[in-house]
Design brief:
Largest sheet: 7 strands, mixed
Low-confidence stretches: none
Number of domains: 1
Shape: globular
Number of strands: 7
Strand content: 25-35%
Distance between the termini: 32 Å
Number of helices: 6
Radius of gyration: 18 Å
Structural class: alpha/beta
CATH class: Alpha Beta
Bound molecules: guanosine-5'-diphosphate, magnesium ion
């Protein structure tokens, strides 16, 4: 039984057809609760993970199609606790657009949140045009917290992706708590 629950908003972004929905679907072979937000054309996928005796609830936001209006994008991003930015290793334009997705994200979420860069469709080895080295460099250059190569088709690294995001969220929450409470450690709070 979970004695403690934490809910996190996770957004997944990237160009059309890079595999965002497929990555979620691969992860969702376990029990998943879905809800559709008609107003902004967004699918919410709720995954519940047990970490020790804590229930971690990931609410994964997935936009259907590309948002035409800035206001929709802002609604989509605002309040995010973590972000996954996906590109397709077989289409260079999707890698070049990672920058634009990051800028849109940072405009809506000025605080530093965990961000993971994902090179998807690595099963398409013969069509691959964006190398692992380029992905790793982009990860470092843009201050992503992690870089992963995935295939939503074969399932390669998909579990690892969501494990990584969950780990980063836990660490982020611990850091936040430490920063908030450290000043009080040397005062009397028990009396
Ligand atoms: P989204 O627009 O980013 O949500 O992309 P989708 O998840 O709808 O995927 C777009 C297309 O790419 C679909 O035809 C998927 O089957 C295909 N696709 C997604 N991920 C992979 C992958 O890892 N490998 C391959 N070969 N195809 C993929
Ligand atoms: Mg999609």
């Amino acid at each position: 039984m979970a004695t403690n629950e934490h809910t996190f908003k996770l957004v997944i972004v990237g160009d059309a057809a890079v595999g965002k929905t497929s990555l979620i679907t691969q992860f969702a072979t376990r029990k998943f609760h879905k809800e559709y937000l008609q107003t902004i054309g967004c699918q919410l996928n709720v995954a519940e993970l047990n970490v020790g005796d804590v229930l971690i609830r990931l609410v994964i936001w997935d936009l259907a199609g590309q948002p035409r209006f800035q206001s929709v994008r802002t609604l989509y991003f605002v309040g995010s606790d973590a972000a996954i930015v996906v590109y397709d290793v077989s289409r260079r334009s999707t890698f070049e657009n990672v920058d634009g997705w990051l800028m849109a994200l940072k405009r809506a979420v000025p605080d530093k949140i965990p961000m993971v860069l994902v090179a998807n469709k690595v099963d398409l080895a013969s069509q691959r045009v964006v190398t692992a080295k380029e992905g790793e460099q982009a990860c470092l250059g843009h201050e992503f917290d992690a870089y992963l190569e995935t295939s939503a088709r074969t399932g390669e690294n998909v579990g690892e992706l969501f494990d990584t995001v969950t780990r980063l969220l836990i660490q982020d929450r611990l850091t936040e708590l430490r920063e908030r409470l450290t000043p009080f450690l040397y005062t009397s709070f028990a009396s």
